[in-house]
């Protein structure tokens, strides 16, 4: 009997229970992700008020920032399946959860050192990539203030993984929305010079995000130290004690996750850099379109995080039928939602674009037209984007991360990026060609990950813990 047939014969009440459990876990994660994206979105919106050149500089800086950030994020995300599987095996585990969180925080500190060095030299890196000197200079200033957001962000992600595995993600939602409000306030103060503070321009945006990220981390620290359900784990007790087998286990699981995320996200970062080689209007339009697409992506990303926990719990308990139900429930919800969002992008593009740029200003006419054309292709790949995001989380719950990383490398860098470059620069399609390549790359990865999930009974990874 196939896994799909086994899942289909499960009592309807089990499917309804799984849907409720998935949604209960996913919706705070989705809103938390939206809150984190809202922080970036407010930065982009407020940069747009300073002019198209500032927006373009911010886009360059943000894309360079996200390249190393995402790789480190993949390492941090390894804590989630490790904690979930341990809880599935032993619901009352305390010591192993504490050690996993502790080694995750150690890993965050170590990975930040090279990231800080890279971002400090952001202007030189952008110039070496052939970016316009004036834009690269402003982006470099932005990065030197923004880079200090990395470590508190990683700390927040690790603690969020901990409370999410315990199926209490609501605190992360509260904290991130407080941080978003503070980020808007800090931008208003430092970017534009209010409350007696001198206007810092784009540098003020980097400072605002760093302060907001610190607020997120310390807010989460307060929660895990004060909330009774979390306090008993004493996460920061004996923080100096090493657990090298567990540290190596995090690396073993996290490096492929980091690779997958790096291959996926950096293709969009490289797309922005390629847009900068076309012209500033294309780069500004791309920044708007990708920000809109990023907002919709937060739903399958939340489902990715939720299904990692749900599959991990079932996997740890040795329940293959539960694994099947958890995976397919999240997959259907994610793909259906993204299909709906694609329709919205096609029908009301100007309404979405108007949140980022003044539609009535004639100087913005070309940026608006380009953004509309990019949104058409963003709409087309919504389904593929949702499918690959949720499928990656399904496999991650099984500790299956190495092969999905290889699939990401093939789809994004072996197919999507080369095709986008050829269409953009050889066939003269410019920005539209780049977006066509992105869409095909996502489709290829989504198909391969789904095929991998269908074969999960033959490739499921054993339970692995650092001991």
Automatic annotation (TrEMBL):
Location, primary (coarse class): membrane
Membrane topology: Multi-pass membrane protein
Compartments in which it is found: Cell inner membrane
InterPro entries linked: MATE_fam, MATE_MdtK, MdtK-like
Transmembrane segments: 64-84, 105-129, 141-159, 171-190, 202-228, 249-278, 284-307, 328-351, 363-384, 405-427, 433-454
Keywords: Antiport, Cell membrane, Ion transport, Membrane, Transmembrane, Transmembrane helix, Transport
Domain of life: Bacteria
Protein name: Multidrug-efflux transporter
């Amino acid at each position: 009997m196939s896994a799909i047939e086994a899942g289909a014969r499960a009592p309807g009440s089990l499917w309804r229970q799984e849907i409720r459990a998935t949604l209960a876990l996913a919706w705070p994660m989705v809103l938390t992700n939206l809150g984190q994206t809202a922080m970036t979105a407010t930065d982009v919106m407020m940069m747009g008020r300073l002019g198209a050149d500032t927006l373009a500089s911010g886009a360059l800086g943000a894309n360079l920032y996200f390249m190393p950030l995402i790789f480190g994020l993949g390492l941090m995300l390894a804590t989630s399946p490790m904690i979930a599987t341990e809880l599935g095996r032993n619901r009352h585990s305390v010591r192993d959860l504490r050690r996993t969180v502790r080694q995750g925080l150690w890993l965050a500190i170590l990975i930040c050192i090279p990231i800080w060095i890279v971002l400090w030299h952001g202007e030189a890196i952008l110039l070496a990539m052939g970016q316009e000197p004036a834009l690269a200079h402003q982006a470099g200033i932005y990065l030197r203030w923004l880079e200090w957001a990395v470590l508190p962000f990683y700390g927040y992600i690790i603690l969020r993984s901990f409370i999410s595995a315990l199926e209490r993600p609501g605190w992360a939602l509260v904290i991130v929305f407080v941080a978003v409000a503070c980020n808007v306030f800090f931008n208003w103060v430092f970017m534009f010079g209010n409350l007696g503070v001198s206007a810092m321009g784009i540098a003020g945006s980097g400072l605002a995000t760093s302060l907001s990220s610190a607020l997120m981390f310390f807010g989460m620290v307060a929660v895990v130290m004060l909330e009774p359900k979390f306090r008993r784990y004493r996460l920061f007790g004996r923080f100096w004690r090493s657990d090298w087998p567990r540290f190596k286990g995090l690396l073993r699981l996290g490096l492929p996750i980091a690779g997958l995320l790096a291959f996926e996200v950096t293709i969009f970062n490289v797309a922005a850099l390629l847009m900068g080689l076309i012209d500033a209007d294309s780069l500004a339009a791309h920044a708007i379109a990708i920000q809109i697409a990023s907002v919709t992506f937060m739903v399958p990303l939340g489902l990715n995080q939720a299904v990692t926990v749900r599959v991990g719990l079932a996997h740890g308990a040795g329940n293959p039928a539960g694994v099947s139900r958890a995976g397919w429930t999240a997959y259907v919800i994610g793909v259906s939602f993204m299909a709906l969002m694609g329709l919205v992008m096609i029908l009301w593009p100007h309404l979405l674009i108007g949140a980022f740029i003044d539609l009535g200003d004639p100087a913005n006419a070309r940026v608006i037209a380009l953004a509309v054309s990019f949104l058409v292709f963003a709409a087309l790949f919504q389904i593929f984007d949702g499918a690959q995001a949720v499928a990656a989380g399904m496999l991650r719950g099984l500790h299956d991360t190495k092969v999905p990383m290889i699939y990401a490398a093939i789809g994004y860098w072996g197919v999507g990026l080369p095709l986008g470059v050829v269409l953009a620069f050889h066939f003269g399609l410019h920005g539209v060609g780049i977006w066509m390549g992105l869409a095909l790359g996502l489709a290829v990865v989504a198909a391969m990950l789904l095929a991998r999930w269908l074969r999960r009974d033959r490739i499921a990874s054993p339970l692995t813990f650092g001991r």
